[in-house]
Amino acid sequence: MSALFDLSGKTAVAIGGNSVLGSSMALGLAEHGAQVAIVGRDVEKAEKVVQEIETAGGSAKAFQADVSSRESLEQLAKEIEQWSGGWDILLNAPGKNSPTPFFDIDMEEWDDIMDVNLKGLVQTCQVFAKRMIEQGRKGSIINISSVSSTTPLSRVFTYSVSKAGVNSMTQFLAREFAPHGIRVNAIIPGFFPAEQNRKILSEDRINSIMNHTPMNRFGEPDELQGAAVWLASDKASSFVTGTLIRVDGGFGSMTI
After folding, report:
1. Helix axes 225-232, 20-31, angle to 10 degrees
2. N or C: at which end does the chain have fewer Cβ atoms within 10 angstroms?
3. The model's pTM
């Protein structure tokens, strides 16, 4: 059974791999044998994740890039290709959020969030999937969405819209890339305390979240590892593409 989840010989590119959730999933991929490129705007944070992976016996390297810049992504792809020769797994986990009320949102803030959460994923897939196809590499693209993508949450308008776009993009690209042997899926995490949502987790909001989460708790970052490793494995999820996998403690199953 363990062979189903063996990623030995695979290279994974973890965009946003220096974040709380991204780093946990990157660790899971590394623990199952993949060498991992940890990518973030803050390279010092990326280096810390690399150290953690290497301490656990894995292989990784830190890279700096800005997903809102096509030029930055193209340079990143060249650097990773020089390091590993190519990649088989692309984990898209960048994220930016804001609690700005709808009528107060200016287009500068809108563009900033969209540039990271949606445009950034589109550009990353354009650069990295294209190179996978050119190299004849089959593989897996894993996009990180949000529960707000299907049921919009209060106080995070732009974030919710951007993540709804991620879901649509995921399913479109699953169809687009299937003939090339590249699977595209998304993970929909529930509530995991992380950098972008801690600032809006008031006591009242936490109570509301718990009342809507059957498991009555927040998720732990390492609880995303199983879904990420499963989707990354060509053996374990070989016929899985265009899916939106919930890891949300039952949040998406609740109404009243």
Report:
1. 50
2. C
3. 0.95
